[in-house]
Design goal:
heterodimer; A: alpha+beta; two-stranded antiparallel sheet; 4 helices; B: mainly alpha; 11 helices
Chain lengths: 104, 282
């Protein structure tokens, strides 16, 4: 399943639960979707950088297994954006469900 | 590090500016190493783990394109903003050139300079907003290049019928020359301030996706105050030269904003039509 367009929502949602790095986020998406969301993991990084530039997430460095890792956490602006993205997604899915539920 | 990975990382981060490149490269490398470790722990042999980890990352070109788009957008915005501020600062040069030289020099280098800077700024704006190469974008870009060419060539193609030939007789009046010079300077300085405000406001509004709400309001106020200043300049003076300069300035701005508005309309229409464009507004 192509998840194009919903990556921002997925990333913001996962970071609202706990800070994480790109690999962790990609693995969580695969795990939670049971592999249904088909995506290339490299695409997570441009999305993370874009969200950071927009001030929706903030980066910080942590040492993990003796190696510096770039972690991301949600900012206040990101929390607000997450709420808007969730509402937009719900509106979208409800609209599609309503159309699909309409008897032919 | 194996050569395949090195090639992939190089392709994925090529063209990404400075620190962002190092950061992205380190993140992608760490991602790859984590994936290899996980695949190996799950029982894959080492070669298969490396292969699968690289495959999971996807096409390096796609990652690189997205990273460049993300990191260059801000640079383009800053550059376009600098041009938006710097371009009208050239206006006082108009006055200096007009006083110490003649209209021919003005036409020869200053007007083309302004038009070139203006076109450059618009192209930057388009570069910012589009990656899709849709037809309206190309049309908008072509129209700007065409407009620039017309503005540059018109004074040469129509000798004796351009704006500078209208100004020349006024400036040639020996008795009023000094007064006219001072008034020309004053008119151009005030006009320069007005146009500066307009350009700054226009630039901020054009790239409003990168602005906060407060900046957008300030931009709107700047834009409005610039127009008021220019209108006031024309209304307050009865001097022929200032009137001509003011009218020319206002006509130029009306032409510019109309065409710019048309261009933006084409771009926004294309965005919404595209729908799934990564550059589509939220």
């Amino acid at each position: 399943m192509n998840y194009k367009g919903s990556l921002t929502l997925l990333i913001l949602h996962l970071l609202s639960q706990e800070p994480g790095h790109g690999y962790k986020i990609a693995k969580r998406i695969r795990l939670l979707s049971d592999g249904a969301l088909d995506f290339k993991e490299g695409s997570v990084y441009p999305a993370l950088h874009k969200l950071e530039k927009e001030g929706l997430i903030a980066a910080f460095t942590e040492v993990e297994n003796g190696r510096e890792r770039r972690y991301y956490r949600l900012t206040d602006a990101g929390k607000k954006q997450l709420g808007e993205e969730r509402r937009a997604w719900q509106t979208f899915t409800q609209a599609v469900t309503a159309v699909l539920g309409e008897p032919a | 590090m194996n050569s395949e990975l090195e090639t992939w990382l190089e392709a994925a981060t090529r063209g990404v500016p400075g620190e962002a490149r190092a950061s992205a490269r380190a993140e992608l490398l760490a991602h790859y190493e984590d994936a290899v470790a996980d695949y190996t722990a799950a029982g894959c042999d080492e070669a298969a783990a490396h292969r699968q980890a690289l495959a999971d990352l996807g096409a390096a070109a796609a990652v690189g394109r997205a990273l460049r788009q993300t990191h260059h957008a801000e640079r383009y915005y800053k550059l376009a903003l600098a041009l938006g501020i710097g371009l009208p600062l050239c206006l006082p040069l108009f006055a200096v050139t007009f006083i110490w030289a003649d209209g021919a020099i003005l036409v020869c280098w200053l007007l083309p300079l302004l038009v070139t800077l203006s076109a450059f700024r618009v192209l930057l704006g388009q570069q910012l907003e589009m990656e899709t190469g849709l037809r309206p974008y190309r049309l908008a870009r072509a129209s700007w290049i065409l407009l620039g060419a017309v503005i540059i060539l018109t004074p040469f193609l129509l000798p004796g019928h351009n704006v500078f030939s209208l100004l020349a007789p006024v400036a040639a009046d020996g008795q009023n020359l000094i007064r006219l010079m001072l008034l020309a300077l004053l008119a151009m300085a005030l006009g320069g301030v007005g146009v500066s405000l307009i350009w700054l406001g226009d630039t901020l509004l054009t790239y409003r996706r990168y602005c906060s709400r407060v900046e957008q309001i300030v931009a709107g106020l700047l834009l409005g105050s610039g127009f008021i200043l220019l209108s006031g300049l024309v209304a307050a003076t009865q001097v022929e030269l200032a009137l001509i300069v003011g009218l020319i300035t206002i006509l130029s701005i009306i032409t510019f904003t109309t065409l710019h508005g048309l261009m933006l309309w084409l771009i926004f229409r294309a965005w919404y039509r595209k729908g799934d464009s990564p550059a589509a507004p939220a």
